[in-house]
Amino acid sequence: MKEKTKHPGQKGRPAPHRQKAKQPVEPSHADKPGLEARMAAAKMLAAVVDKKVSLDGLMDGEHGNPAYTALSEADRGLVRAIVTTSLRFLPRIEAMLNGLLDAPLPAGARSLYHLLVTAAAQILYLDVPDHSAVDLAVEQANRDPRSRRFAGMVNAVLRRMGREKQALIEDTRSLPCVPDWFLNRLTAVYGAEEARRIAEAQMLPAAIDLTVKSDAGGWAEKLGGHVLPHGSLRLAAFEGSVTALPGYENGAWWVQDAAAALPVLMFGEVAGKTAVDLCAAPGGKTAQLLAKGAKVTAVEQSANRLKRLKGNLDRLGFEAELVHSDLLNFNPGHGFDLVLLDAPCSSTGTTRRHPDVLFTKGPADIEKLATVQEKLLRHALTLVNPGGRLVFSNCSLDPKEGEEMVARVLADHPDFQRLPLDRQEWPGLEQAISSEGEFRTTPAMLSLPHPYSSGLDGFYACQLLKI
Ligand SMILES: C[S@@+](CC[C@H](N)C(=O)[O-])C[C@H]1O[C@@H](n2cnc3c(N)ncnc32)[C@H](O)[C@@H]1O
């Protein structure tokens, strides 16, 4: 696999000059180009690893962490690249640092730890010149009273890392790059070999997939992508902002992982049917239902996310009935032909896009979320018309939030039965259909010639028929 990743923030970046004398803390870091971005990266990593704050929140353009929002667009890109790379390779980076340190870091020296990890990510896996990464890390240490006395050690360790990086990368190549709790769980569920493949797949950032309203082939040509089984369009090597691409402004397509598009496809023909999307924002699946001609009610409990959904539908030129409500309080007095419950979950299937998930969530969250999902599913079943269907889905890799929970609910719902998928009707995705006839995708699936164009988000989806 490719070990050095280009990042958008580095293009055209002036090489930071060396500064010998260590100055007292200054009000601004403008004298050291790139220093603020490095400091922000270490801070973001600390928030994720030590405080379990999600990167989406920290890096929200408007409401994110001020250390991040204060940066230029290019520096934000650099921070994203440093933090996501640090998280993707954390077990290996930790092993390399441990091997290079003469003694373990003092307990509680967390800012020093995050500084070293983020600098190591640049040296080992990003196209940042080693001398810049080292100089800025030393500067960072010098400007932080907690780390200042370690500045010499930071310099020595990182310089050696730069000199020995090829051997270090080789020596740690077999170390799985996910936390132990996750690897153990993957191994228990999928077996050792598949667990290794999933762990490996999550080291690469995901390609960008689009769902197009029509003419996927034409858009593939225009945008330089390729059409996947069942119609999603993949932009494998895309870098930059999707909002600048043709077709964005006039709502010809929306961003949606190919696996996330499958739950709605399971309904088949939906034109003219009544459908409710119970956990609707940001609206990828609502848009699919609308594009296929269903009459859609979209329920969402978060006002902000409902606003975002409305904005997305406006751009796409779609209209749905929007309901701001906890779905547990949604009792419209009538049923629907189609009910979609794309439930909140641990999101462990999305770690290629969100490598922070494995550090902000753990086994206890999975148990808790499975309980929430069960409650939501039990209520969702009350909204299905006789002869109607419900699709339950989420982006967790854990059967506790999928197969096991659904089996529990079905056990005391004789009025519902599973509608198994027929593998022959899903060419190219046979591997993703379980023996129960449900979708169970993982990032290690959809293996295409180039690793950067391979993979799917981990998804679970089943369809239930009301008898
Ligand atoms: C996994 S996301 C849904 C993604 C969406 N289906 C799509 O494809 O774009 C889950 C959504 O459910 C919402 N949600 C969580 N609990 C809810 C509840 N009890 N009632 C309604 N919405 C809820 C969350 O705010 C979040 O927007």
From TrEMBL:
Biological process annotations from GO:
methylation
Q: Where is the composition biased (Basic residues)?
A: 1-21
Keyword annotations: Methyltransferase, RNA-binding, S-adenosyl-L-methionine, Transferase
Question: Which Gene3D superfamilies would you find in this protein's record?
Answer: NusB-like, Vaccinia Virus protein VP39
GO molecular function: any one?
Answer: methyltransferase activity
Whether Acetylation counts among this entry's keywords is no
Q: Which InterPro entries match?
A: MeTrfase_RsmB-F_NOP2_cat, MeTrfase_RsmB-F_NOP2_dom, NusB-like_sf, NusB_RsmB_TIM44, RCMT, SAM-dependent_MTases_sf
User: Which residues are responsible for catalysis?
Assistant: C395 (nucleophile)
Q: Which domain of life is it from?
A: Bacteria
Provide an example Pfam family for this protein: NusB
Indicate which residues the UniProt annotation says bind S-adenosyl-L-methionine.
C279, A280, A281, P282, G283, G284, K285, E300, D326, D342
Region of interest (Disordered), ranges: 1-33
Q: What is its EC number?
A: 2.1.1.176
> Domain SAM-dependent MTase RsmB/NOP-type: where?
184-467
Q: What class of enzyme is it?
A: transferase
Which protein family is it in? Belongs to the class I-like SAM-binding methyltransferase superfamily. RsmB/NOP family.
The name this protein carries in UniProt is 16S rRNA (Cytosine967-C5)-methyltransferase
Q: Which organism is it from?
A: Rhizobium paknamense
Lineage of origin: Bacteria, Pseudomonadati, Pseudomonadota, Alphaproteobacteria, Hyphomicrobiales
